[in-house]
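hey all, quick one before standup. I had two proteins in the batch that finished overnight and I want to keep them in one place so we stop losing track of which output belongs to which input. First protein below, input sequence then structure tokens straight from the run.
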Amino acid sequence: MPTPTKGPRLGGGPAHEKLMLANLSAQLFENRSITTTVTKAKRLRPYAERLITLAKKGDLAARRRVVAQISAKNATNQGIVHELFTVIAPAMAEREGGYTRITKIGSRKGDNAPMAVIELVMEPVSPKQKVVRDAEAAAAAAAPAEEEPAEEQAAADAVEAEASDEAAAETPADTEADETAAEAAAEETPEEDK
């Protein structure tokens, strides 16, 4: 008998393991979170994530493969497959993997088996990536706003240049008269103080 790729088999044989994984994945999709042993949770993770990846494709062939793997012979499992394709897969559309989360919760009371909660990760992809996207959008919005003050500065520089050109264009007689009037005013002020 060939060695399985993902650790020792669960249950008595390969058929029993397939049925257990199908039932666990159906319960996971129905309830969004289940409590099981750590070993079963670790074996369920790749199985459930593969089904979610198929559901993200959304075509008829993918739906038939999921139905075959979940053993959707009864109406309850048909509803679970429908929910997987219409609710869970669109929620995972931006996520490229890591659709499930395993959290260890301690040992079971009767046989001291290590227990875990496996749940679907329905949150947005990453708040850090969202912050980065928002910052890029704000930077793109601020770039045109920065160009406007530069245009206003250019207009102000043009006005100053025109004023300096007008001042240079004044006749020398006008400037000499202004200078003599300023000197006379300066001479009169100190004499009045005495």
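OK second protein, same deal, sequence then tokens:
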Amino acid sequence: MKLHPSSRPSLLAFALLLSPAAWAQSDLVALHPCNIVGVKAKQQVEDLQATCATEIARGDVQLVSSDLVRAFLDKEAKSPKEPQGSCARAKKPSECLGKLAAATQASRAVLITVDPGPLTRVSGLVVNAQGEVVDQKSIQLRIRPGQSQGDVTRTAITRLREQLTLVPLKIAPLVEQPAPPPLVATPEPSTGTAQTTPPPPTQAPPEAIAVRQSPLRTGRTWKTPAAYAGAGVGVVGLGLGVVFAITGNNAMVESNKFYTGTNLPTFNQLGEVVSLREKASRDRTIAGVSAGVGAALVGAGVYLWLTDRPASPAPGTAALSAGPGGVSVHVLLP
């Protein structure tokens, strides 16, 4: 989803940024050109790469445009003589794939390695935009009589695609269970004999009416100061979460400016795009942590304040008694 540069975040946008669903990027997958091992013929390499890309794109996998992937790899090329770079030849392939996912605005990047032969081996590496390895699997198939190398390779890649976790798992929303029906009291069966309730006995009027006042001194425990302190720190944490959410959203808006319309970032601008995407991801993570900690502290403060009880009152009460013979006041000093 692209944001217009002139748009301003609203309160709804702040709430979405603080929710876990807003931290995740799109479900697009950046497919690195398949790494073909042990094949020197250029035409055969291109045929195997085309077969690999076709099989990975089947199903519900949405791939990033190959032009964006090639632009990133051209920028990562180690020398001008090399027309295109490759994460497979990098010192840290997972780090290279993480940069590829961030630069192409994808949630994950995938590198498939194919080693054709009588015993065809196919392996897959899935990395998220932070450079963390999400999944890694490898399978091998032997060519049977009457099978071609292309058929075996296609079958192996299809099986590998079914086993790899290419897109983030979807979590089904919780369904609120309906409230149980109210209980209806069952009347007791009648015995056929009417029962009468005797009237309450009359009491003689008291000779004196005693009025006791509330304790002279009351207080609260340590929970009340702790509640105020926790709630204050929690409010500060929520404020920091909103600030980092705004800065992360602004960084993502700035990075999207390079993809307006049909324009693509140049080689010199890809580094800035990657830096803005990393800042947006980092700020959103900090915003989520700050908001979570702040909400927890505010909740703890409210709980302590509600559960606090007055301390035992110190001795010191007063009582007023009135009767036919007069009125008396009794005071108990501490």
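Flagging for whoever picks this up: Residues 8-24+212-334 form one domain. The chain has a mean pLDDT of 75.
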